[in-house]
Amino acid sequence: xxxxxxxxxxxxxxxxxxxxxxxxxxxxxxxxxxxxxxxxxxxxxxxxxxxxxxxxxxxxxxxxxxxxxxxxxxxxxxxxxxxxxxxxxxxxxxxxxxxxxxxxxxxxxxxxxxxxxxxxxxxxxxxxxxxxxxxxxxxxxxxxxxxxxxxxxxxxxxxxxxxxxxxxxxxxxxxxxxxxxxxxxxxxxxxxxxxxxxxxxxxxxxxxxxxxxxxxxxxxxxxxxxxxxxxxxxxxxxxxxxxxxxxxxxxxxxxxxxxxxxxxxxxxxxxxxxxxxxxxxxxxxxxxxxxxxxxxxxxxxxxxxxxxxxxxxxxxxxxxxxxxxxxxxxxxxxxxxxxxxxxxxxxxxxxxxxxxxxxxxxxxxxxxxxxxxxxxxxxxxxxxxxxxxxxxxxxxxxxxxxxxxxx
Length: 407
Ligand code: ADP
Fold this sequence. Notes:
By secondary structure, the protein is of the alpha+beta class.
């Protein structure tokens, strides 16, 4: 990647040569790259995203948590100080109480995290996490958090314009993860009280305000036993934004462009409502039977339901396939192994699940191994549909599901 699409200077040159006024950085590394945003600014090209200063403010988990603490946004109990001596980190683990989670401050994508169950493991775990941080992110700085046993990952989609307005476009539930990486994302969150939705939405806006945010952003929270805690803010549009587009009826990329052009947000908070239920699954070139290792090769065949829309909302069919590859294309080992995102919409959660089942059954990718059948099994688990029941949120316990449970 660093020899191709991360060469920011070439992208800026291409914009200049073609007379483009603005650059949309997508949802990859460039979208959260403060240097690239700054470079665009310096070249009088609009970066479609937040100001470089806001990206920087949230770039490091520990610095972000300090700011959020000052802004009175609720945090997971933990330590995010500058003193990185083994003694201080060790003492922090003891004070917080086991189990704790060590995180690389510069980490992302689930990398640089270690669960520590007891005092005996602390020193090895600290050394290991520091090494991983240094190797993957060139930064060994750690933070320590209370490890919550059974949280849900619920995040708020928000938008701010350059005139001081901010709204939230509700939440996404991304609790279904593997190795702390999202696999299934849905909106709205099942069994989620309206009062918490509002409180979380307002906390997210408070977080954005504290860093003078402009544009699309996501504030991620952990939610457990009726309480929620700030985890981090992603200062970009996320991979899973289509589920929010479906339930709100809004085109978030269009919103981004309007905001970048200096317009006022298209809608006020009281004009936004939730319509139906949407679910997204990520189709990956990976082998579930071989520890989910990424696969590579040529896509011989890529079949999916003909009624799928692409990058746009269609409520009649309620099926959308967003992808940048087609039959005959090569999936190389050099980039993220995501092939496509399949998004469905239904009038309620069960209707969306049914549609997803139908769409996945009709999806076939040949030429390389993918996770399509794994996804099909995952969404057929009783614990997945149980989130629909009125019982209580505790039933929603699939976030730790692994392939072995499914065979
Ligand atoms: P990354 O930036 O690497 O994605 P995050 O801090 O966003 O890391 O955490 C990724 C996932 O790890 C969360 O969605 C959640 O499932 C899990 N996680 C993070 N912090 C905690 C915690 N304190 N307790 C339990 N699980 C956590």
